[in-house]
Write a structure and sequence with these properties.
The chain is an alpha/beta fold and 314 residues long. The chain starts with a strand and ends with a helix. The chain has helices at residues 11-22, 39-45, 65-74, 89-92, 96-117, 151-170, 192-202, 221-233, 252-263, 287-293, 301-311; strands at residues 2-6, 26-31, 55-59, 79-82, 121-127, 173-179, 182-183, 205-209, 215-216, 219-220, 239-244, 250-251, 268-272. It has a domain at 2-179 and 220-245 and 283-297: Rossmann fold. The protein is globular and about 55 Å long. The strands form four sheets. The chain has a seven-stranded parallel sheet with strand order 3-2-1-4-5-6-11, sandwiched between helices. It binds nicotinamide-adenine-dinucleotide. The site of nicotinamide-adenine-dinucleotide has 30 residues, from helix 1, strand 2, helix 5 and strand 5.
């Protein structure tokens, strides 16, 4: 297959590119090296596959319709894996217009190109943050009346809605995957596990939001990228929203103590109130992913974190 990956230089994008290329697919990667974090990290993310003959890279902004059109025009794309986004819930409150532009307008640009060039399948990177104020113990895809807590989460919900519209209106098959806090080698530097690891190692202050009892359904990027690849092959229904989580929530205090143990150093912890954009807890119900995608998360949290520490700075 000829697969277009947006955000190919990012954390998850680089894993998906590597796996698809290993499976013999052709991958067309685009990324604009958004300055949210350093370009050199993103270039490093691509180093394993940048010279693979089945991979082509273009520095393209998904909100630039002219350049995007050239990509669709010049490549016979079968499937789009749309991972490009401005990420990070807290930052989104500071730059709401930029988030709206990339995450909503940019998604619409992709959908318009798909419509124009007859591309019939998209996998979209949505987020557990869409569940917002949800009070259910486990988050299921059919929950309604969710109120998002951040501009970022709202942009993901709105993008899901546009994708559903294009699926219904223009026959584009779509799977919106709601990822639950993804970790593993090359994790984004703004995310807790990466940040905490370097803070503990360097003896810097680690800010813990709340009393440590908040929890997240951390999911290894290996499992997330396998779930994305299964979604590429899913063809039973035209539109689905599917959680990709681990169904194993871990609380913040435990995460910090595990990192301390593996690094062999105590954290220098300062506590602050939980920011209003942050969810207190996330817990995925993954029965739908199991049923539709044969998705079974394989990486246990302790093993994934041990490997993460081993690979850190690689
Ligand atoms: N990492 C997580 O825990 C997590 C959880 C839920 C959802 N997601 C979603 O998964 C996707 C990938 O996340 P990630 O953690 O790999 O983030 P990332 O920031 O590492 O990757 C996103 C990539 O998109 C690129 N990008 C941003 N704006 C762009 C634009 N206008 N045009 C082209 N490229 C652009 C960035 O340069 C970056 O390389 C994102 O859509 C994110 O919202 C991630």
């Amino acid at each position: 297959m000829n697969i277009l990956i947006t955000g190919c230089a990012g954390f998850i994008g680089s894993w998906v590119c590597q796996k698809l290329l290993a499976n013999g697919h052709k991958v067309v990667g685009i990324d604009n090296f958004d300055p949210f974090y350093d370009k050199s990290i993103k270039q490093h993310n691509m180093k394993e596959f940048i010279s693979n003959p089945n991979f082509s890279f273009s520095e393209v902004d998904i909100t630039d319709m002219g350049s995007l059109d050239n990509i669709f025009n010049g490549n016979d794309v079968d499937v789009v894996v749309h991972l490009a986004a401005k990420a990070g819930v807290r930052y989104s409150g500071l730059y709401p217009l930029d988030y709206l532009k990339t995450n909503v307008f940019g998604t619409l640009c992709i959908l318009e190109c798909m419509k124009k060039y007859g591309v019939k399948k998209i996998i979209f990177s949505s987020s557990s943050s869409v569940y917002g104020n949800c009070t259910a113990e486990k988050f299921t895809e059919d929950l309604t009346n969710l109120k998002q807590l951040s501009v970022y989460a709202q942009t993901k919900k709105t993008a899901e809605d546009y994708i559903e519209l294009y699926s219904r209106r223009y026959g584009i098959n779509a799977v919106c995957l709601r990822f639950f806090t993804v970790y593993g080698k090359r994790q984004r530097p703004d995310l807790a596990i990466t940040k905490f690891t370097s803070q503990i190692r360097n003896g810097e202050i680690l800010t813990m939001y709340g009393d440590g009892s908040s929890y997240r359904d951390y999911t290894h990027v290996e499992d997330i990228s396998d779930g994305i690849i299964s979604a590429i092959y899913y063809d039973q229904t035209p539109y689905e929203i599917i959680n990709l989580g681990c169904e194993n929530p871990v609380n913040l205090s435990y995460l910090i103590s595990l990192l301390e143990k593996l690094i062999g150093k105590k954290a220098n912890i300062k506590t602050e109130p939980v920011p209003c954009e942050d969810m207190i807890r996330t817990y995925a119900d993954i029965s739908k992913a199991k049923k539709l995608l044969n998705y079974i998360p394989k990486i246990k949290f302790q093993d994934g974190i041990s490997k993460f520490i081993e690979d850190f700075n690689d």
